[in-house]
Amino acid sequence: MSRMPLYFCLLAIAVNTAMSTNSKAEEQSRPNIVVIFVDDLGYADIGPFGCTKYPTPHLDQMAAEGMRFTDFVVSSAVCSASRAALLTGCYHSRVGIHGALGPNSRIGIHADEVTLGELCQSQGYATACVGKWHLGDSPQFLPTANGFDEYFGLPYSNDMWPYHPANIARQEKDPSAPTLYPPLPLFKGTEIVDPAVSPEGQAQLTKQYTEYAVDFVRRHRDQPFLLYVPHSMVHVPLYASQDFLGKSGAGLFGDVMMEVDWSVGKILQVLRDEELDEQTLVVFTSDNGPWLSYGDHAGSAGELREGKGTMWEGGYRVPTVMRWPSQIPASSTCDKLASSIDLLPTIAKLIGAPLPEHVIDGKDIGPLLRGEPAAESPHEAFYCYYGNNELQAVRDERWKLVLPHRYRTLSGRPGGTDGKPVQYDTADAPLALYDLQEDPGETTDVRAEHADVEASLMLQAERARNSLGDRLQKRVGSEVRDVGRNDI
Predict the structure, then answer these.
(1) Sorting pLDDT into bands at 50, 70 and 90, what band is 25?
(2) What is the mean pLDDT of residues 326-347?
(3) Does residue 288 contact residue 294 with C-beta atoms inside 8 Å?
(4) Does pLDDT of 285 surpass 60?
(5) Residue 289 φ then ψ, to 5°
(6) Residue 89 in contact with residue 358, Cβ under 8 Å?
(7) I want to staple 118 with a disulfide (CB 3.0 to 4.6 A). Which of 104, 147, 212, 288 is the partner?
């Protein structure tokens, strides 16, 4: 009997074993990705960024083991626009999503956009969105149609329900008046598992999101995964579970923040328990700054000017911590300009995924993450759009040119109490130049001393208007893509 068949059998087994081993090693070398995206969290609302009103021990530990980004900005200081930008790697203006989409919105994320979920799916990642989506609530706009295998959460903001203060006031005045908002649904996949979330149900959301996220990690410990956790809190109305009510000593906002911090701790703990710690990048950030009109139910932007709903620094600069023990230097700080739009291209590079064929605006910030000594911000300029595509400012790493526009402000007045907001004033912002390095609070206009900087940033503004448009100048951008539409 010939020995050759046996030889070839053994050779085939050896080759297959090697290929399997190499494949497994390659899979393990690709990091898991966890993105925790808190709603309306102000720049000064966590311990690593100076908060002392209530404890955030898990975020403190995350910063001690990772990197703080002190000049991390979002595309726009409002819910849907900010989420569209994070998930597509584009300015929200490029993908046509502005403001905050309401229930039964006729628009949403376009099917042709490549989301972070789809990018990761293309490389064999399991993907889940756990929390608030807010990119359209029609079936074609939901997470499961846009890159996420699993979805558990609310389709839009938790105040878009019949208990909204404006709706209650309206119906107290006229009980026959139609409701401003329908009941608030809770989704699991494409199924509505609670058609009318109650106040008691809202109090369980952070806990439920966390339990689902932890279970997802356990179920997918043996394959790479993307876990996107866009919390409903600390957007109003504020709710915390019984375990945290009254525990912070800083009112309901502090209680809610302690539960969000607890949630971070539970996610970090399951990564340790499942021995995934060294191969997982965890990003903690916010969609925009604090909703100041809600006063004691809102957070703080610290020394930064204004908050949510403006493109002053307090509106779009957000507290950000990233942790990856095997790659990110512990107890480090990055003061370079970076943005949520950079997450998609950075993660693409880390997992070996090709970038979308269409234009994106984000840049790879891997060198910043690794703390490379010569690493610089990849952004020559950053465009600050708000409202219905208004270009309100242009900045680089040091300088910010504020363009004339109207904005909302409390004019130094305190916000509301007990979940009821006060009305904003409207103010006019003149053309002004701020040195963010010396004056992050944007208090002193230095245009007169730096005409060359103004001229340079004005050229950048023209580039933005040419490509993305500017409603204030009635300009239509040449590179804006179609938004998704529900024509039913």
Answers:
(1) very low
(2) 98
(3) no
(4) yes
(5) -80, -170
(6) no
(7) 147
Strand runs labelled E in 292-446:
320-323, 332-334, 338-339, 382-386, 390-395, 399-402, 405-409, 425-429, 432-435
- Tokens linked to 400: 């910010």
Q: Rounded to 5 degrees, what angle do the CA atoms 447, 452, 457 make?
A: 80
The span from the CA of 24 to the CA of 22, in Å, is: 5
Distance in angstroms (rounded) separating the CA atoms of residues 485 and 488: 9
DSSP label at residue 183: P
pLDDT in tens, 103-146: 999 999 999 999 999 999 999 999 999 999 999 999 999 999 99
Left if phi > 0, otherwise alpha if psi is -120 to 50, otherwise beta: which for 284? beta
Burial class (CB in 10 A: 0-12, 13-18, 19+), 67: buried
Whether the CB-CB separation of 131 and 229 falls below 8 Å is answered with: yes
Assess contact for 341 and 91: CB atoms under 8 A: yes
Q: What is the pLDDT of residues 150-173, one digit of tens each?
A: 999 999 999 999 999 999 999 999
Q: Which residues are catalytic?
A: 79, 134
Q: Identify the burial level of 435 via C-beta atoms within 10 angstroms of its C-beta, where 0-12 means exposed, 13-18 middle and 19 or more buried.
A: middle
Amino acid identity, position 441: G
How do residues 448-474 score in pLDDT, each as one tens digit?
Answer: 999 999 999 999 999 999 999 999 999
Say which amino acid occupies 217: V
The one-letter amino acid at 35: V
28: its two tokens: 């393990």
Distance CA 211, CA 213 (A): 5
Looking at every residue in the chain, the average pLDDT score rounds to 94
